[in-house]
Backbone:
């Protein structure tokens, strides 16, 4: 009969692993093989064994294995990379593998490399998380429908960074103990194994969530054909939800042909986003009108969103029609962002009638 | 260049290698020549053999299956000789401070 156990990060603490394997043998689990993540045990009679963990970069040389075997050490398996396990019966006079502390220096080097490596990763990764939080900023939290997934995602990123730091500190402590020859305080194996199981579950969850998230991004991209909604239909939806809007027709673009570039009504928690943009072209000019309308159901989100939308060149305008209004215009271009209660609107217009667009903006969305 | 002064392990290993032998035999030999005082583990031995090979103190004489038979080189003998002389000087240097029966005054 076989029993399988997950290899914990304790593998890097040789004495912990040795003690664990010895304990397993005392309970009747005899190590048979090992992979990258799992130990395979055979059920046997309980027995007393001595286990030793050896670090060796690359494949173990044959003559080394032979030498150990001559002395009574049986080669069991390679665990992960560069970690090899030997064992011998406990009650025999099989000599210890290492008797000279100078040679042990190899072990310190291994641990040191690991420590430095982990440390670098922890720092890099933490920087990356900070960069991500800074770049993605508030917008990620307001991407409709993905706010909760984003929260989860960010939490996991932070947890992972903390874990990396924790591991690096542990490796450093271990290295220091090895160097000074201080006997190692053995951690509670069961705790580590539980932690390992938990992190496996977390990893699976994480992969699922991130997968869903990425899939969601792909499928809800505005330009994706599946999300391309004919403008007539958008009008119907907006009418059905009683959302205010105006179109190029209202702005009087005579005798030209108009296309919507993209449009859609996206009802999600915590807000409904309505987006459309029109583009019309006649012989000598082109006209563009794009509109975003956010109906928000959570307090404070509106102001935050407005702050995010405001561009550097936009100036605040005092008006009774809106709570807050930012505006920028230049030639035949006008850009306006406004908040009224829990409603946020954005409009960009390029054409020969910017004044009309501006007054329509007030009439349609203002008080 | 070989490490000077030698560690105890290196010294006894070179001593044992005056009779060529493979790893396990060397371990027994070390125990014998040191009268059971020095016991070297196979891991330590293997590491030492590798280092001494690099330094040219020893050589692989032949290979039997997966077992290598090692022997000391002239350079190794010279290093051992130097180490012996160094140890002698050390024991001589302490003489003036010794009283009867080799006890420190």
Residues:
């Amino acid at each position: 009969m076989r029993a399988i156990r997950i290899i914990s990060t304790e593998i890097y603490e040789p004495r912990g692993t040795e003690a664990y394997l010895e304990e397993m043998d005392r309970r009747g689990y005899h190590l048979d093989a090992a992979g990258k993540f799992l130990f395979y045990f055979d059920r046997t009679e309980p027995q007393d064994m001595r286990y030793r963990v050896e670090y060796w970069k690359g494949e173990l040389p044959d003559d080394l294995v032979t030498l150990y075997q001559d002395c009574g050490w049986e080669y069991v398996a390679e665990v992960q990379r560069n970690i090899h396990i030997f064992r011998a019966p406990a009650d025999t006079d099989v000599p210890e593998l290492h008797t000279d502390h100078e040679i042990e220096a190899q072990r310190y080097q291994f641990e040191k490399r690991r420590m430095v490596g982990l440390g670098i990763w922890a720092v890099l990764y933490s920087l990356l998380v900070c960069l991500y939080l800074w770049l993605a900023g508030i917008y990620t939290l307001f991407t409709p429908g993905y706010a909760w997934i984003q929260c989860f995602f960010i939490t996991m990123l932070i947890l992972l960074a903390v874990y990396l730091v924790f591991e690096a500190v542990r490796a450093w402590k271990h290295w220091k103990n090895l160097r000074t020859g201080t006997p190692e305080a053995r951690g509670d194996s069961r705790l580590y194994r539980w932690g390992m199981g938990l992190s496996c579950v977390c990893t699976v969850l994480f992969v699922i969530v991130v997968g869903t998230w990425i899939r969601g991004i792909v499928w809800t991209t505005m330009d994706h054909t599946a999300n391309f909604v004919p403008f007539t239909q958008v009008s119907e939806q907006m009418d059905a939800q009683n959302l205010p809007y105006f179109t190029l027709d209202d702005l009087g673009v005579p005798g030209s042909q108009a296309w919507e570039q993209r449009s859609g009504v996206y009802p999600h928690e915590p807000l409904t986003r309505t987006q459309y943009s029109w583009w019309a072209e006649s012989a000598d000019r082109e006209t563009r009108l794009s509109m975003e309308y956010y109906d928000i159901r959570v307090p404070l989100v509106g102001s935050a969103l407005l702050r995010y939308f405001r561009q550097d060149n936009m100036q605040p305008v005092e008006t009774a029609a809106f709570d807050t209004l930012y505006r920028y215009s230049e030639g035949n271009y006008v850009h306006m962002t406004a908040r009224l209660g829990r409603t946020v609107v954005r409009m960009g217009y390029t054409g020969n009638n910017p004044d009309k667009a501006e007054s329509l903006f007030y009439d349609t969305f203002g008080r | 260049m070989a490490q000077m002064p030698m560690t105890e392990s290196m010294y006894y290993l070179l001593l044992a290698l005056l009779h060529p032998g493979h790893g396990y035999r060397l371990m027994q030999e070390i125990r014998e020549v040191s009268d059971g005082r020095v016991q070297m583990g196979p891991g330590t031995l293997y590491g030492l053999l590798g280092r001494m090979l690099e330094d040219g103190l020893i050589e692989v004489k032949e290979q039997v299956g997966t077992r290598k038979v090692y022997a000391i080189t002239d350079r190794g003998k010279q290093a051992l000789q130097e180490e012996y002389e160094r140890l002698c000087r050390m024991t001589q240097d302490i003489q003036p401070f010794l009283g009867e029966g080799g006890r420190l005054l």
About this structure: Chain B has a mean pLDDT of 88. The first helix of chain B runs from residue 8 to 16.
